[in-house]
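SUBJECT: A protein chain and its fold
Encoding: whole-number codes for local backbone shapes
Chain under study, with its fold:
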Amino acid sequence: MSTVNTPLPPSATVVESGRLVTTTPSNALRPQPSMFTLLGLRSSPFWTSPNNNLPPGGKTNQRIAYGDEYVAEVVDKLEASYKEIKKEYMEAVMGISDGGKAVNTALMEGDYDANSTDQGHKLHKGSWDWHSYVQGGVKMDNSFRSLCPKTASIIDSLGTSLFSTPFSYVFFSTLHPGTTITPHSSAMNLRLRVHLPLIVPEFEWDALDKVGLECGGQKRVWEEGKAVVLDDSYVHHVWNNTTSTRVVLLVDIWHPDVTMEERKSTEEMFEYTKNMGWMK
């Protein structure tokens, strides 16, 4: 009997690295970086568990994919500083002090460029503000450090964990009511993206249509002060259909499986393409 038109049944093989290799149809959910792929990296849409509760004496890596200590260390540093970071955001961007009073200082200006084609700004519908510390791999010469010194210091303390290519960003991401970021994937699979939620609209937890994010077909909601780590080389999108603002501190870090030698080679590759005029 001919089997020419008979599709292969779905199957999978777990290889030595622990990565899942599938032979399911080509539209199966998997990383889809648009520019560059480094093979052999462990892969998961989310690197943090949807359940943020740890047992007594539990360690952060128990809610991190693969129990990865490198990612857990970044999460620990950011979560430990959540209150300080939120306080600086409220004062510098919203102009509101801890006690709810207006502050008498100049507010940080957003650096959202509505005409940009290289920052992902064409992806959203509604109002989305950025207040950046790192943009395109470069620390911004703006008011971020002076108005948010503790936040800047915490980011600096991440050291070599910080992603360092033209596709590296660190910024306050303010998603205003009625705003969506349409499905897209990043240019490469070399980074992980961390969201530290500072302000999350109140809603019923089973109402994911109101506010949340989806990555690789998995949906999540934010919880203030609890980091969400995702691999944005998977197709992902975000929505805020509430009447309140959602704010996260977004931080890009190196994928833990990219070695120091590979990081150096990647940085040199991008420096070369920039010098050749192939990239801005």
The helical segments are 69-80, 82-94, 144-147, 149-156, 260-275. The first helix runs from residue 69 to 80.
